[in-house]
Amino acid sequence: MEYTTGTPSWRLVLRRAVGGLRPRRPGQRQRGWSVGVPLIALAAGLLFTTSATTADGTTLRDDRRPQLAQLITDKRARLEEREHRAAALRKSVDQDAARLADVDEPVKEARQRADAMREPAGFTALRGPGVTVTLNDSSRRGTEGGPDAPQNDDLVVHQGDVQAVVNALWAGGAEAMSIMDVRVISTSAVRCVGNTLLLHGQVFSPPFKITAIGEPTAMHRALESAEGVQQFRDAVADYGLGYTETVERNVTVRAYDGSSDLRSAEVTE
What we know:
By secondary structure, this protein is α+β, with helices and mostly antiparallel strands.
């Protein structure tokens, strides 16, 4: 027989049996644990055995930085191989176009117009007087000795530092420029990751050398008046960063040999 009492929020059902309410069976909780503990121990043993077999005497959580470094090296080698192949293809196209220009007047005129723009566009090597600026990280190490102690970011060359020098040299009348002996043109972008420089798919470590061909005195004045360059030179005195400026009597900036595709542009007022 069942007796039901309750409210809309709860309901209690009393089941009547011989001797009154059905008592909780003794030992029910203990028997559950007695079965579960061996199963847990068995599972743990299987996990330990699997880990030991997988490790095979090595550390499972080993440092993966060497693997990442090897991956970067492989990607860089692949990029260099493709760049060499692209350069060979461009040379072959130029040779074919030159032969065609001997017998086709419109092609000849088009090549003449293109050749006239190659030098200002940076596709020919240029030689002359200029200036070389070298930026380098500090030999000091960041400390936590107080609020005035230099941090790691204070002791390395940043992307903005390289850009400040490049922009100052252009403003000073530079006719051609290279960074780490790589020719830069109007579509070149300077990027820094940590204390490394990314330029045209290549990675460079400091010191960073920037060479510009032009009138040395005018470019020196532009460097002296550039706010970003002066901030870096202040950091040279404060944190031991490296800055050298050398006048070049006769230096060569090689031709640009990368892609000239312009993906985006913005006009500033």
